[in-house]
Amino acid sequence: MKQSVKRLAKQWLLPVPTALRKNQIKPDHAGLAHIEQAIRTHYHQDWRSEAHYSPEKYQEDLQAHLSERLENDRRLIVPWLNKAKPLRGQRILEIGCGTGSSTIALAEQGAQVTGIDIDQGALKVARERAAVYGVSADFQSINANQLVKTFGKGNFDSIIFFASLEHMTLTERLASLRDAWSMLPLGGLLVIIETPNRLWFFDSHTSRLPFFNWLPDKLAFRYSKFSPRENFRELYRQYTPESTEHFLRRGRGMSFHELDIAIGEVQKLKVVSSISSFLGMRYRLKQSAIDRDYKNLLGKIYPDIHPGFFDDHLYLIIEKT
């Protein structure tokens, strides 16, 4: 019942334009069962295996990768991106394609998508998903700090960091942002999607703790034992190079500071849109009073940059001029 109410609320607040909805592909039951088996076989392995979750939490994660992420991308991300620049015919590099939900949402609208990820299991699922949906997409296993070497310059109209910047080390994040910007032609779009804002007071992405992303990495590592999140709080006890990298890749957030360093001062960048500016009142309706007050406070402290840099998650479209 609760899920049905949430679904109806999304349909009311985030209606998909008819021109986009008619392009959505619906696989049959056998196709969905095939994708589910691929997720179980290739993605839910090692630290993500079913044994590391309660039955309820495992089903939540399974359903998210099976269909819920795709539906969210169709309802929220695709209309936002398509308004900034029509997706049909766009050459898109998607950094952090994961298990391919976002790739399907883009490709079924006629975009020519190249998806990259360093997670081999996720890429296997992405390829299986694309086959079931009957879309063409190029999936490659490369690190985001190899962008220019792999693809050269001028071959993409948009480069999307899809829920990926927060999972990189700082060195990778700066290098990939710098390289992506250099690869874009004038008028090209750099897109950041679903990256937790380091400046926000609550970490809803990784630890589900207040002020977590404000902490230095080593302190955050040790403090993770207080997290209410399963398959997180119990993992980080010994601070070794291997456990540290794993911890950082779970997601530490970022802020406008990386953009300042990698591509130029943010107050001079042409921000075409943020998700909050796109949704307007619909975005404010989902915020609590403290969320609105906190964002307003950040804007007063630094009034010279786009307010999208002060949302709880960074959803930004930046045009190269």
TrEMBL record:
It is an enzyme of class 2 (transferase). Its EC number is 2.1.1.-. One of its GO terms (molecular function) is methyltransferase activity. The keyword Transferase applies. GO terms for biological process: methylation. Residues 92-188 form the Methyltransferase domain. The keyword Methyltransferase applies. Keywords: Methyltransferase, Transferase. It comes from the Bacteria. This is Class I SAM-dependent methyltransferase.
